[in-house]
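Problem: given the chain below (125 residues), write out its structure.
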Amino acid sequence: MHHPDPKKHRRLFRIGLFLFIVNFPVGYGGIAICGTLAVVLRQREWLWVGAGAYAFSWILLGVGFYLSGQTGWLYAKNFWKRRKRLEKLREIRAKRVAKRRERKRRKADRKTDDTRVSPGSRSKK
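Solution.
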């Protein structure tokens, strides 16, 4: 849905995008949780609640598509891929930072070791 006011269009796009992203966990999460409750509590009514949650997720998908259009659909489709890629990049960066800190610590340890031992008392190899 394209609105002539850019601020309102941006807001509608974000709402649609949010609905796209929430759609998947609501549908499958609802089925999983309600199915588990149906088995544990031995009440078949929970299966109907799970089916209702799944149907509601399709409604969320439809409203999200209406609000954000094909652009929002493509953005939401790649959302989880980008999130996983970001997590991998964060892990790589954390490892690099840890290596730098370790190098600095070792360098500082070597400097303190050099200052403690007098030059003439070192054993030669």
